[in-house]
Amino acid sequence: MECGHTQDTSRLEARNRWRRLKNTVAFAAAIKSSLAHDLLEDKLHVDPVKGNDSVATGAAAQASMPVKAKGRKGMEGLVVQQDRGYMSCFQDFYVACLKLPVVHFFIGVFLAPVALASIFTPLYLSDAKGLKLVESQEAGSSCDSSKIWSCLNVFLYSLSLSTTFGGSPISAISPFCLLVANLHTLMAQFLFVFLSGAVFARMSQPAHPIRCSKKAIIKNNDFGTSDDEDGRSKVFVIRLVLTGPPPCELVDAKIRLTFRIYVRLPSGSMFCSTQDLDLVRSEVAYLRYGLTVRHVINSKSPISGHTLDTLAQGDASFSLTIMGVERSSMQPIFHVEDYFICDGDVIWDGEYLDFVGVNDKGLRVLDHSKIDMLKPFKVAGVVTQAIARMEGEVARHKAEADLKEEKNHEPLSESDWKTSGVRIRKLWKTISGSK
């Protein structure tokens, strides 16, 4: 019995050692094969027989449901679904108010007391007998006062408590109405503190004394050399100016240009590739008046090899961000400008109109109204050059054809006549011998 038990134990240990060795070899082979693959396309997480249902479902959804909107509408129309509770949304209500547009923000500030008065008005109407007209109103009121006029007086009383005005045609006399009026006053004071903080925070937000051109251009690089083999490269150009009361100065300005394009992975899913582009001047210690942002599209640039059609197919876009400090107020500055290929924000082979001129007094003038203007004759010049090249090619082919035709009709020289006569005699001898 002991011998049989020992044999079973040794077999079990040998089987376990074999399993561990087999798993180790399989794991090493899997790690070796996954080194050449991207983490997004890792094959270790996909069963070769069953497959990963989540990955397959996601890829099929991306492939079968193309994005309808592209460009700015596609970026701004992105729906973000957050799994947050009502308490978190209530806590973020203050931040959401600060992010509203200026017009909507001030409309909300003026409508907030009206909304608070509308909430407490039904409570006062539930105990209408607890309210009475003041003595001045009692003397001038008629006996046939309508119900609408009574409701209006109650609403004006509630609104006077919301705005802390104090003047109203009626007053509270019952304990219930007095309790509601005190709670209403406390809520009005809390609303006043909330609105005061919101207005102060909104007015102290960073200013936007930066204006960028609405159109970006891609043109031939007229400055410097290129690393390309043909010695030619293009440059991505955006113009920006500083606005506001002079002097317009920015300290420690940092400029970033980001390139985004959608690519399709081998699995069929879509991936948004985001890369920072190298700029000629990415940091400026002291910026005055404005700057021309330039990115050289050489062999190291992510835009190299792309055309306007390939960029449009990938829904490419560019984001320009400027950060700095305004010198006079030492207030932080942040500005962002987006350029979408599908919206026509990038002009290929375009040229900006010069917005720096000289006035009658001999002073240089920086005209901000011309920051978005392009040279109209740029496209016409390109078309004219193309037509001239085509006409030159047609003329060259025609000249070559005429030259060949002249050679065919050219009379033979004396040596050519002798050579042709010898060939004719040899041909007749061959024909006669064959007969």
Mean pLDDT: 75
**Count of DSSP helices?**
12
CATH names the topology of one domain as: Immunoglobulin-like
- β-strand percent reads 15-25%
CA-based shape: flat
Q: Any idea what the CATH architecture of one domain is? A: Sandwich
- For the termini, the CA-CA separation is 113 Å
Radius of gyration: 41 Å
| Main structural class | alpha+beta
Residue windows where pLDDT falls under 50 for at least 5 positions: 35-65
Series of H and E elements: HHHHHHEHHEHEEEEEEEHEEEEEHH
How many strand segments?
14
CATH homologous superfamily (4th level) name of one domain = G protein-activated inward rectifier potassium channel 1
* CATH C-level name of one domain: Mainly Beta
Helix content: 40-55%
Oligomer kind:
single chain
Biggest beta-sheet profile: 5 strands, mixed
Write a brief caption for the model.
The protein is of the alpha+beta class. The chain is built from twelve helices and 14 strands.
Structural notes for this entry:
The chain has helices spanning 2-34, 53-64, 71-76, 86-91, 93-98, 102-126, 135-140, 147-162, 175-203, 308-313, 377-409, 414-434, and strands at 131-133, 170-172, 210-212, 216-220, 234-242, 249-264, 270-277, 283-288, 290-297, 317-326, 332-340, 346-348, 356-358, 364-366. The chain has 435 residues and is α+β, with helices and mostly antiparallel strands. Among the domains are: 93-203, Orthogonal Bundle (Helix Hairpins); 210-375, Immunoglobulin-like (Sandwich), CATH 2.60.40. The strands form four sheets. Strands 3, 4, 5, 9 and 12 form a five-stranded mixed β-sheet that branches. Strands 6, 7, 8, 10 and 11 form a five-stranded antiparallel β-sheet that branches. A hairpin with a 5-residue loop joins strand 13 and strand 14. The chain is flat and about 145 Å long. It is found in: Membrane. GO terms for molecular function: inward rectifier potassium channel activity. This is Inward rectifier potassium channel C-terminal domain-containing protein.
